[in-house]
Amino acid sequence: MDQLCIVTTGGTIDKIYFDDKSDYQIGEPQIGRILDELGVAFRYSVIPIIRKDSLHINAGDRELIRAAIAAQDAQHVLVTHGTDSMVETAKVLATIPNKTIVMTGALNPARFRGSDAEFNIGTAVGAVQSLPPGVYIAMNGRIWDPSKVRKNVDANRFEAI
């Protein structure tokens, strides 16, 4: 992997809460800060596309994300995305040939102590370097085929379907 292209779209991973998990905004992408703090041994670039809760991502947004990724020279792409509609966006990204695209996010904001953000990002970085071209979801310590996974909202985790 020459350089990792990271595309950010918002979601919980980048949320900033102003009061008890009700009033929030999507802040600056956190992934660059996280990778810098971890001292990773690869080059990367971060391309912020949108800053939305994934429940508010629509077909036009998905096309914008798809076009931005397709336009990149990089063969390895990591996408941070909200978990509620990650699977839907992954299906749109599956139309991009010859790239390994791994989507990840967090069930708790990266700014929160005990967030799963760092673990999910680490899993995604390993996956994007080792998997063949295609689109994958890295959540909860597993790599998922987007056509065979769903988010279980009640259990707050991803599971096979």
Automatic annotation (TrEMBL):
Domain of life (superkingdom): Bacteria
Residues in L-asparaginase N-terminal domain copies: 4-160
Positions bound to substrate: 54, 83-84
Pfam families found in the cross-reference section: Asparaginase (PF00710)
InterPro entries registered for this protein in UniProt: Asp/glu_Ase-like_sf (IPR036152), Asparaginase/glutaminase-like (IPR006034), L-asparaginase_N (IPR027474), L-asparaginase_N_sf (IPR037152)
Signal peptide: none
Catalytic site positions: 12 (o-isoaspartyl threonine intermediate)
Annotated protein name in UniProt: Asparaginase family protein
